[in-house]
């Protein structure tokens, strides 16, 4: 296990951001930052991260309500200990993987990623997490697998939002296997070196930085390898508006609004909108996954 500074920092009584900036300067010269370091370094501007407060108080987690502050106010009721992830379907070693064991086996890295919601707001988040590919390797992906399906925890007593049929609960998502195995795809377990808060999807959630935020499913309890494209919550709710791929694309508008630009959370009331980047700025890394595909059709 390489680079696991998360645990050293957990209990320190310091300001998150000050600590993070400090740590980042120390880590700056070191190798082992992984592809994200290379990816963000390759671009002219490395965006500054949003504050801990922005990232943890402006959320979408509809199981706790549809308001942006509902997750912060309501997610405290969610039981996250003990936690395990059932990995099943086309794998050699199906079973319930305890969260603690996953953390033992995985290498935790820091990944500073742009995050772009389909609603046209964005943030920059310093995640801590591990590559999904490493977890799938632990379970042993079989040769017939073509897709990965994900499911969120569901508890009607703890989640006031699931009384409303906004979505068909539990929240489900899916990726093509090559997308799931891409080194940019992570399971996030922390933010700013602290355990990921419940409102952000504790204790582990998917993060796919080149796709709209709703693909990044929270509080994952099940991962299933399949040979058929799995159903996804927003696509089931409105297939015309939300496709299976949902790659960030400034040239393909949502039927009800433009996707050409975005509002960076924390920019203040008078901040100008920023242009949305193809594949959210990760075009060099992921465009080859979609070579020859019509991205208007496969939105
Ligand atoms: N289970 C679940 N996962 C979810 C959602 C949700 O409502 N339920 N919302 C999605 C949407 S629309 C976005 S933009 C991101 C928001 O992540 P954040 O609150 O950490 O910024 O989570 C995604 N994952
Ligand atoms: Mo979103």
TrEMBL record:
Pfam families: Oxidored_molyb (PF00174)
Oxidoreductase molybdopterin-binding domain segment(s): 79-234
Enzyme Commission numbers on file: 1.8.5.-
Cofactor binding, per record: Binds 1 Mo-molybdopterin (Mo-MPT) cofactor per subunit.
Signal peptide extent: none
Assembly behavior: Heterodimer of a catalytic subunit (MsrP) and a heme-binding subunit (MsrQ).
Protein name as catalogued: Protein-methionine-sulfoxide reductase catalytic subunit MsrP
Species per Swiss-Prot/TrEMBL record: Lacimonas salitolerans
């Amino acid at each position: 296990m390489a680079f696991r500074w998360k645990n050293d920092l957990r209990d320190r009584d310091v300001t998150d951001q000050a600590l993070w900036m400090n740590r980042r300067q120390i880590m700056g010269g070191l190798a082992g930052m992984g592809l994200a370091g290379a990816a963000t370094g390759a671009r002219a501007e490395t965006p500054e991260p949003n504050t801990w407060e922005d990232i943890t108080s402006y959320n979408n987690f509809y199981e706790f309500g549809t308001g942006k502050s509902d997750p912060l106010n309501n997610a405290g009721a969610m039981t996250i200990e003990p936690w395990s992830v059932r990995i099943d379907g086309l794998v050699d070693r199906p079973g319930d993987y305890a969260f603690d064991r996953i953390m033992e086996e995985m290498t935790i890295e820091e990944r500073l990623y742009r995050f772009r919601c389909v609603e046209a707001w964005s943030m920059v988040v310093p995640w801590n997490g591990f590559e999904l590919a490493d977890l799938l390797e632990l379970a042993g992906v079989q040769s017939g697998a073509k897709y990965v399906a994900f499911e969120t925890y569901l508890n009607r007593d703890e989640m006031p939002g699931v009384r409303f049929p906004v979505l068909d609960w539990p929240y489900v998502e899916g990726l093509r296997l090559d997308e799931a195995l891409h080194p940019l795809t992570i399971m996030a377990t922390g933010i700013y070196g602290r355990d990921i808060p419940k409102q952000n999807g504790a204790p582990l959630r998917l993060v796919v930085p080149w796709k709209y935020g709703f693909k990044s499913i929270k509080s994952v309890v099940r991962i299933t390898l399949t040979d058929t494209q799995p159903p996804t919550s927003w696509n089931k709710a409105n297939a015309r508006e939300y496709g299976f791929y949902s790659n960030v694309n400034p040239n393909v508008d949502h039927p009800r609004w433009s996707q050409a630009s975005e509002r960076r959370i924390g920019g203040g009331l008078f901040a100008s909108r920023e242009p949305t980047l193809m594949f959210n700025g990760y075009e060099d890394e992921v465009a080859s996954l979609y070579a020859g595909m019509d991205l208007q059709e496969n939105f």
